[in-house]
């Protein structure tokens, strides 16, 4: 995802990623979230008290282009560079004046480093929130206000995401059923990760039962709930 956002994938990898994005609205939301996190991170950088050289922007862009175009060349150059000339901008170097390091910390991070920082430091979003954030998605709780079992999220394309708060017991699995004319039809089994269905008609009734691993042809336990979505 990071390499795609930075345009570092080759044409084949780019096409594969774009196909995956088109097929998965949640993946689109994840990409947008990464970009929003980067924008927030950059907006929060306070450069008013930092002395930035006049050519800082051009030097940064040149470095990012060089790193993306020839990463192996950098390693060779670093090991064989002569002592004379400007020292490389490395955090471990003691040869750089303090003034130059000061602007590099907040403003000299490359786009890749800033995006990676935003990605790894940001708490991971749970699947329910990710699907519920999609445009037009409708989330509804499962259970009663006193005891909510989980959440159902209906997407605009008819797909439904079902998630229960507690994972099933060892050796058991949740099984999702669509109730048609009073008869249950299995939509698949799931555990703590939840289940995303194919497109379902509006007003369909869904139910979840606890079954042996692998599921059952028909429910073998009392459904935990039955709910229209």
Automatic annotation (TrEMBL):
Which N-terminal residues, if any, form the signal peptide? Answer: none
Q: Which UniProt keywords apply?
A: Cell membrane, Membrane, Transmembrane, Transmembrane helix
**Chain ranges of the Anti-sigma K factor RskA C-terminal domain:** 109-223
Q: Which domain of life is it from?
A: Bacteria
Q: Which InterPro entries match?
A: Anti-sigma-K/W_factor, Anti_sigma_zinc_sf, RskA_C
Q: Which GO terms describe its cellular component?
A: plasma membrane
The compartments listed are: Cell membrane; Membrane
Q: Which organism is it from?
A: Deinococcus deserti (strain DSM 17065 / CIP 109153 / LMG 22923 / VCD115)
GO BP field: regulation of translation
- Pfam families, per database record: RskA_C (PF10099)
**Parts of the chain that traverse the membrane:** 103-121
Q: What is this protein called?
A: Regulator of SigK
Its placement in the membrane is given as: Single-pass membrane protein
One GO MF annotation is:
sigma factor antagonist activity
């Amino acid at each position: 995802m990071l390499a795609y956002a930075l345009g570092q994938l080759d044409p084949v990898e780019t096409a594969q990623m774009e196909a995956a994005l088109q097929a998965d609205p949640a993946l689109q939301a994840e990409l947008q979230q990464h970009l929003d996190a980067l924008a927030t991170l950059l907006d929060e950088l306070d450069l008013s008290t930092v002395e930035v050289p006049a050519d800082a922007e051009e030097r940064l862009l040149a470095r990012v282009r060089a790193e993306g175009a020839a990463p192996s060349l950098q390693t060779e150059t670093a090991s064989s560079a002569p002592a004379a000339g400007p020292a490389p901008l490395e955090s471990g170097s003691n040869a750089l004046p303090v003034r130059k390091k000061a602007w590099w910390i907040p403003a000299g991070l490359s786009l890749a480093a800033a995006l990676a920082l935003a990605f790894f430091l940001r708490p991971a979003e749970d699947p329910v929130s990710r699907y519920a954030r999609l445009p037009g998605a409708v989330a509804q709780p499962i259970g009663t206000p006193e005891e909510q079992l989980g959440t159902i999220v209906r997407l605009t394309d008819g797909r439904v995401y079902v998630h229960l708060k507690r994972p099933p017991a060892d050796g058991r699995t949740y099984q999702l059923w669509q109730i048609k004319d009073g008869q249950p039809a299995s939509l698949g089994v799931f555990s703590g990760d939840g289940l995303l269905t194919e497109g379902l008609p509006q007003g369909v009734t869904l139910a979840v039962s606890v079954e042996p691993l692998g599921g059952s042809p028909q429910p073998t336990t009392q459904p935990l709930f039955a709910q229209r979505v």
